[in-house]
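Q: Could you fold this chain for me?
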Amino acid sequence: MDLAFTDEQDMLRDAVRGLCDDAIDSVRALEDDPVGYDDGFWQGLAAMGLTGLMLPGDVGGSEMGLLDAVVVYEELGRSLVPSPHFASSVVAAGILDAAGSDDQRSTWLPRIASGEAVLTLAWLEPDNGSGPTGVRLPAEATGDGFVLTGAKRHVPFASSAERLVVPARTGDDPEAVDLFLVDPTADGVTLTLQRTVAGDTQYRIDLDGVRVSATDRIGDAGTGWATLSAVLSDAMVLVAAQAVGAAEATHALTTQYAKERHQFDKPIGSFQSISHYLADGVTAIDGARTLVHRAAWTRDEGRDASTLAPMAKLFATQTCRDVTGVAIQVHGGMGFTVECDAQLYFRRAKSWQLNWVDDTRLEELIAAAILD
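A: Sure. Below is the predicted structure, expressed as structure tokens.
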């Protein structure tokens, strides 16, 4: 594996960092906001071709590889600037690109790539896990389509989405799941803003007898879970990249504070307990970064990254959680105050652990790879 970035990737990193720096003040302002992102920042991503990040050129995409996307997501994690990019340009777009019909692709992918349209995934259900059996919402077949009844939660940026991608159960087999495009303004759809640990914009979606046509199904019958799993494999690597970027930023601000804050006539970083925490942190961050880059490089080389992806997400998000926890300890009581940036990273670190495949499911995937 070549750990060196190309000149183009370095330029991409600098460009995204500059865009994020211009929008950094919006992070606090957008917490618990019904919309949850700044339109100017979104248009900036679109102008750079990043809303079509990994989409093919025939739909207006930029045709970047997963390692290119890792470069982008490390910067998004470093700044914490919220946007629907992950839900729309990575997950929903990836699903439609992989399994969408010609009509679905031509209708939605160019609009996603241009930043004109936002789609999101309505996946998780109350009290259910991240595996295939966690999808219990039924899709009951009717003469001309299906009827969906049930609840989804932790749906990001649902109020801005033109369509929801909804996994629903169509049979008794654990993986008998189909994916449907659902209009969030349709009769029977109710959106309720949730409070989250990260303060980001997530909704509960209640579906009460919502009708969808057969043409709204994405892919062939019974293939929904396989499609979702394949897209989530790439998505997990980008969540991990985001966590690495956030961990690096948190470690940097904590190190600086440890140099500046004096106690007993010396900087607190000179005390062994704190210096060793910081040493452990930078070591773990380097390990997480290497694992994320290896997973992305392996995927771009056309090799199987189905084990590396969950490993990267599991290790990187835990590392971010540990590093941000140390940041709170080093800052002391002020670490939890609104004015301190450490608490912003701390809360988002936990959210990344819980969302987009939780630790239990990740451990199951890794264990299956080494035991089966």
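A (continued): The domain at 225-371 is CATH 1.20.140.10 (Butyryl-CoA Dehydrogenase, subunit A; domain 3).
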